[in-house]
Amino acid sequence: xxAQGSKPRLIIVCGLPGAGKTTLAKELExxxxxxxxxPDEWMAEFAIDVWDxxxxxxxxxxxxxxxxxxxxxxxxxxxxxxxxxxxxxxSGGSVTRxxxxxxxxxxxxxxxxxxxxxxxxxxxxxxxxxxAG
Length: 133
Fold this sequence. Notes:
The protein is of the alpha/beta class and about 130 residues long. It has helices at about 20-30, 40-45, 55-70, 95-100, 115-130, and strands at about 10-15, 35, 75-80, 105-115. It has one domain (about 10-130): 3-Layer(aba) Sandwich (Rossmann fold), CATH 3.40.50. It contains five helices and four strands. A four-stranded parallel sheet has the order 2-3-1-4, sandwiched between helices. It starts with 8 loop residues before the first strand and ends with a helix.
């Protein structure tokens, strides 16, 4: 069981490079006493180019294998990813479908992190709309 004494959770933090996935995932890791998997960190540790897709795919597969075992043992895990596609992306992929597939027995949650610049623009638009209205 995790720190909250509840069912183990699979949390997938998705976003573009530099969007803040790792920052959010580290905070969740501390607060939930979870195990966090970040392919970029493993690649850096082994001096692998983060743009080496064949190796990234192998690392992500291995991390998922470890993650599945941890979920079976009742541990919450956090996966960081830039590779999940939304249904509206036109790629045919679906985060919802992938999360359901991955989380047979665990509660699953996918969090999409937008780059700070996008969030700042949205906040400005929202503030401007309230000021004008």
